[in-house]
Amino acid sequence: MRLKVFLPTEILVDEEVTKVIARAENGAFCLLPRHIDFVTALVPGILMFVNGEGEENFMAVDEGTLVKCGREVLVSTRNAVLGPVLGGLEQTIYKQFRTLDDREKAVQSAVAKLEANLVRRFMELK
To answer: Which residue, 50, 49, 47, is CA-closest to 60?
Structure first.
């Protein structure tokens, strides 16, 4: 199978694999080359894949979409981090994804304040 992992700014992974294990809302699943085609929404977690040499690789993924079509497995996500060791990946995920969540909350708060201010000023014009 060919695994491709797409981020907004780059293609993080593009290689031949023999197995992919990921998590969706209803639990973990394993894809092998003859698996049926399907589409699923991924939840934040660990995606594991075995490359052509039999080496296990781990990747932390944020929410995203996985499409299995023929011999291709396509993953699209906003954030992903490759890590050779599962234990070290957990700390990286926590730091990187937590920082992004905090930034998103700050931006959402600022946008809400701007919207409220805009509505208040329109009301003052009447």
So the answer is: 47
Give per-residue pLDDT as tens, 20-68: 999 999 999 999 999 999 999 998 888 999 998 988 999 988 889 999 9
Residue 102: give the domain boundaries.
2-125
- The length of the chain in residues reads 126
Strand-pair partners of 33: none
CB 65 within 8 A of CB 84: no
- CATH code for the domain in which residue 91 is found: 2.60.15.10
Q: How many domains does the chain have?
A: 1
**Using H for helix, E for strand and C for coil, what is the string for the chain?**
CEEEEECCCCEEEEEEEEEEEEEECCEEEEECCCCCCEEEEECCEEEEEEECCCCEEEEEECCEEEEEECCEEEEEECCEEEECCHHHHHHHHHHHHHHHHHHHHHHHHHHHHHHHHHHHHHHHHC
| Tokens 């990946």 belong to residue | 89
Task: Report the C-alpha gap between 116 and 100 in whole angstroms.
Answer: 24
d(CA 2, CA 8): 19
